[in-house]
Description:
- By secondary structure, this protein is an alpha/beta fold.
- 44% of the residues lie in helices and 21% in strands.
Amino acid sequence: MLSPQERLSQQELKRRHEAVRVRMREKGLEFLLVSGIRFVAGAGYLRYLTNWAEPFAGEVLLLPLNGTPIFLARTAERALLVRNLLGLQAVPGSTALHAADILKREGCKRLGLCGMK
């Protein structure tokens, strides 16, 4: 079985982020909240931007127009796993409240949603 790094290079991941950021600029968005709840309900968006999908509970990526994406994992252990396996900035806590706190701290005024039902 291939490791996550072997399945998708960091260069390709950054290319994907930049492609999405082009669209964010067009829409005037400061952040994109990408939800990955279950494999069949939008996890494709999360997997496209992180090379990670959550089969059982929701996890979230906050993709800023500029700067480092923040992965919101459901537990501290999963945050550590995402950091170590994927090289993404990851923090525990994937609820709407966790996302809102980070977005507020970052001063986000215009947010796009992706993968939400």
